[in-house]
Amino acid sequence: MFDFIRTHNKAIQLLMFVFILPGFFLFGIEGFSSMGEKSETVAVVDGRKIGQIEWDAAVKDDVERIRQSAPTVDTKVFDTSEFKYASLEQLVKRRVLATAAQKLHLGVSDQRLASELLQNPMLAALRLPNGKIDDIKYKELLAPQGITPQGFEARVRSDLSVQQVLQSLAMSGMVPASLADVALNAYFEKREIQILKFSPEDFVKKITPTDAEVEAFYKGNSMLFQATEKASIQYVTLDVESIKKTITLNEADVKSYYEQNGDRLSGAEERKASHILIAAAKSATVEARLKAKKQAEDLLVQIKKSPVSFADLAKKNSQDPVSAASGGDLGFFARGSMVKPFEDAVFAMQPKQLSEVVESDFGYHIIQLTEVKAPKKRSFVEMKPEIETELKKQMAQKKFAEAAEIFTNTVYEQSDSLKPVADKLKLEIQTAQNVTRQASPNARGALANAKFLSVLFSSDAIDKKRNTEAVEMGGNQLTAGRIVSYTPAQTLPLDAIQDRVRALLVQRMSLDLARTEGVAKLAELTSTTVSEAIPAQMGAPLTVSRDVLQQQNPKLIDTALRANSSKLPLWLGVDLGAEGYRVVRLNKIVDGAQAAATQNRDQYLRVWSNAENTSYYEYLKDKFKVQIKVTKPDAKTDLKPKAT
């Protein structure tokens, strides 16, 4: 099972992320601030900081919610930059909505809070016959989460306040069914059309421009025939890797690190286990949980009589939909992969041992430990290269700030050459030819960085051949460059590009001719004498709608669907730019739009509501001057602070 999750990392990430979206708004405004002030700032909302510590806590909470919802999922698959950034976005959203609730004075009365708590299914099992909550069990329920009853109630109160922000919008944003049907009918309406094409490629053979026309076109469009400016440059880059190359390690330090960390670096112990789960959510009633526990205890009695029957009983009785089919087999896992009661039981057992009934938030487990895979401690010789790499990385990261200051000052103070900074920091001066202001498709590193190229082609760098400033390229990376030689943009001579100019002129003239003939044909077809004529070249009838384009240009479909259909058939002309011109005959309206609209009315209302919520949230982000100071990652990047 775990191999499957690792193989389908991204798919599982997207699937599991639904578990964290409805999470609590965990802290009030003051709670947010107190955490944000004590660590590096990753976001700002209404002048209040969100710190790295708070972000880390949010990621941890999100992963824990996933683990509680799907206990057999290996949560290591969520250790990605994309997942962490998504948690940050949700954290920012919670802050924005909490700030809005505070600004709008959307408080929650004690009576409203009490009503919500009484309806909370998690607390239902703790209710005494007199209707009150059992205080002792209440505290015991919250203790594993590190929450007091007062803290939990504060969270619920905050959550209810925040819900009012969007609920008030939802109540005012109702769309009458009649208006929804108007929009949906327009969207789902189907129309039958025929198309007569006037494509430029069909007119190319009719075009033979003279030399004079080619020359006139060249002179009138000289900007189309310019060679771009280009430069030969030198540049140097300071990053952690370049600093690592200058570091020499002491053998004794490497060996000392091995002695202190060898066990940890060799890997964690993994255990393979099977389980039978009798499901009983923690929100279930006391009676339901007792019934599930009794069922588990009865199964345990059967297994103890015949341990070899474990797999068969798991297939028949386990309510874990993932592992039941394989006899309860969960595969190998390390600490941190399972819910705590389950994990504590497994790592306290001996191979082949059978557990007693183990209670978790998901119900009751019977566990059989099948195998223990202890990591083999690798020798110093085996681990030496790995340790050296790690130590050099740590030392380079510590030295980077000092080196960055030297780099920045040197390229500025000795601006006539990059050699001084290269010598000081033992950097390699790199060269590149034919560099342009816009990065080429195959460019990499600094040569693909728009900010660096913009600075490189500044007037100061071009005219005075000075070093550029140190440009922040991302996390722990600076680059500076200088122009060695520069060729300005210039118009290419006609003799050198005559074929290219002629081909472009033919293309332009063919397009003009296609458009002219299309417009003339439309005028002919819309005349009173031939209004019912259908040219032989016209295509077969097509039924189109906004969700069925029939491989046609969207502009053509939009024109056909927007046209006034009160009098049919109707002739339309559509200019498709470089594709040419189309004459369209609108034949008739096709039945069926009303039924489709009715079926999709609820979906339309949901989309409308979501759009209003999104729009309002964007308004709040702008109002509260939201800043996220972490670069959004893509599939190939890690999370890095934005340059400031």
Written overview of the protein:
This protein is of the alpha+beta class. The protein has 4 domains: 2-172 and 619-641, Triger factor/SurA peptide-binding fold; 186-225 and 494-593, no CATH class; 229-245 and 395-488; 268-373, Roll (Chitinase A, domain 3). 48% of the residues lie in helices and 17% in strands. A 4-stranded antiparallel sheet has the order 14-3-16-15. A 4-stranded antiparallel sheet has the order 10-5-12-11. It has a 4-stranded antiparallel sheet with strand order 7-6-9-8, sandwiched between helices. β11 (471-474) and β12 form a beta hairpin. α17 (380-413) packs antiparallel against α18 (419-425). The longest helix has 34 residues, at 380-413. The protein is extended, with a radius of gyration of 35 Å.
According to DSSP, the number of beta strands is 19
Estimated share of beta-strand residues:
15-25%
CATH topology term of the largest domain: Triger factor/SurA peptide-binding fold
CATH architecture descriptor text of the largest domain: Orthogonal Bundle
Strand order of the largest sheet: 14-3-16-15
Structural class: alpha+beta
Return the average pLDDT rounded to an integer: 82
Using only C-alpha atoms, the radius of gyration works out to 35 Å
Global morphology: extended
Portion of residues in helices?
A: 40-55%
| Largest β sheet strand count, sense and barrel closure | 4 strands, antiparallel
The rounded distance between the terminal residues' Cα atoms is 44 Å
Low-confidence spans: 1-37
Q: What's the number of domains? A: 4
